[in-house]
Amino acid sequence: MAVRTRFAPSPTGYLHLGSVRTALYAWLYARHHGGEFVLRIEDTDRERSTEAAVNAILEGMSWLGLDADEGPIYQSRRLSRYREVINDLVQEEKAYHCYCTRAELDAMRLDAQQKGRKPRYDGRCRQANNMRNDIDPVVRFKNPLDGQVIVNDAVKGAITFENSELDDLIIARSDGSPTYNFSVVVDDSDMEISHVIRGDDHLNNTPRQINVFAALGATAPVYAHLPMIHGPDGTKLSKRHGAVNVLEYEVQGFLPQAVLNYLVRLGWAHEDQEIFSLDELISLFDLNRVNRAPANFDPDKFLWVNQQHVKAAPTEQLTTLLAEQLAAQNLRAEDGPPLETVVDSLRDRSQTIRTMAESAHCYFTDFDEFDRKAAKAHLRPVAREPLLHFRRAASDLQDWSQAATQKIVEDVAADLALKLGKVAQPLRVALTGQAASPDIGTTLLLVGKQRTLQRVDRALAYIEEREQTNGPAA
User: Fold this and answer.
1) What is the pLDDT of residues 324-365, one digit of tens each?
2) Is 239 assigned a catalytic role?
3) pLDDT confidence of 106, banded at 50, 70, 90?
4) Percent of the chain with pLDDT over 90
């Protein structure tokens, strides 16, 4: 059987992490088996579907690299097909018009509750022609009255549903528009979808859909219902946990390959491996490794996974992304050192490209003030002599390289009989305003000679002002 999977989001909101994981699993399964992946936009709910949401879905899929072999296919452009199938089912007496009013349905539901039964449609229009000229009817599917539906779920195993517990599904609303549980079956049949991979919140829809497949004389796909993703506190994943538009993670400086890597592990595992390339995931992924239990979203682990990918990513990719982040922070790449050098100096300590850009600020523009704690610890009167000594040597240096500047710092420490940190740390605070940066030679290289001399002068002025204010012991 040729493998054809699909991702079928409703454009009523943004593409969030749960939806992306569903898309990823379907995409990986198709790629692993040499099959095809279809993107279908389920936009028949015209009141809630928006063009902005459609664009957000397409942009998110593009950013993540989850390319479709077919689509996007829009349900809203297939309405004539749904009406055709609905008419066929009515003609074949596999569906019928229901003229029950809202008041009648509410009374039916209340009566069932009072009698301790499950609220469900009692099939009264199925048994007789109750046509009313003043009512636009819905169309209901004639669900089998007895027997069972067995869902051989690829994740959860065999699950049995009694047909007696399923009422007659509405397949067309009173305005003629198809309902979800009907249109999805027609689509999956027409598009020859072999495997439906989706969240287990859809599990209760599955027996109804299998019965519709049978009525159409079509073979139902293999279903795989994925466990839900919970927040760190075990509750349903929400915006406060990180269930935001996936494109927000692009803004935050996450790498698409890291997002996919983290999400695949929320429900799937390969031994104890944590970090995967996309090629590895395609090679290893299969449904038999998907867990049945819900997974918990861990924002700290997400950042850690992203940091591992930042460390390993090609410099060219990070350079492009860093330039975009700098621009978003109103900094110009041409105002600082080569971005490749910045990337290679900061990649090991950066969780995201945004934090990399924030750490690189001092290489592209002057900072407003020293970090108070760092200045208090390192820009003290005892640092005046090492800074002056360094400045005199640095002002004459022609070869402003990492090695040459590092040697000056080492020579100053040796000349003054100081540990290297007693020179490097005050210098680091003078150059960056912070107590942490790459090694001092790299930091000097990135700041550049002119800015270095200016910032050392500024630090010396700060020390003098502090001494005048607080006295020599400060």
Assistant:
1) 999 999 999 999 999 999 999 999 999 999 999 999 999 999
2) yes
3) confident
4) 84
Residue with tokens 């680091």: 428
Tokens of 193: 């979808």
In the prediction, which pLDDT does 243 show?
A: 63
**Residue 194 identity (one-letter amino acid):** S
Which of 236, 239, 301, 422 is labelled catalytic? 239
Q: Which of 13, 10, 7, 8 is nearest to 56 (CA)?
A: 13
Average pLDDT, the chain: 93
Write the CB contacts of 272 (distance below 8 Å, at least 6 apart in sequence).
none
Within the chain, what is the greatest distance between any pair of CA atoms? 105
Q: What are phi and psi of 36, to 5 degrees?
A: -125, 150
Query: Sign of the C-alpha dihedral, residues 10, 11, 17, 21?
Result: positive
Which two three-digit tokens encode residue 240? 């406060």
- Output DSSP code: residue 1: -
- Give the integer Cα–Cα distance in Å for 95 and 215: 10
Query: What distance in Å separates the CA atoms of residue 3 and residue 286, rounded to the nearest whole number?
Result: 12
> Residue 473 pLDDT more than 60?
no
Give 147's contacts (C-beta < 8 A, 6+ positions apart).
163
pLDDT given at position 319 = 97
H helices of 12-166, in order, are 17-32, 51-64, 79-91, 102-114, 124-127
* Paired tokens of 332: 């110009």
> What domains are defined for the chain?
4-76+228-306 (3.40.50.620), 78-226 (3.40.50.620), 313-360 (1.10.8), 366-474 (1.10.10.350)
Note the residue count of the chain. 474
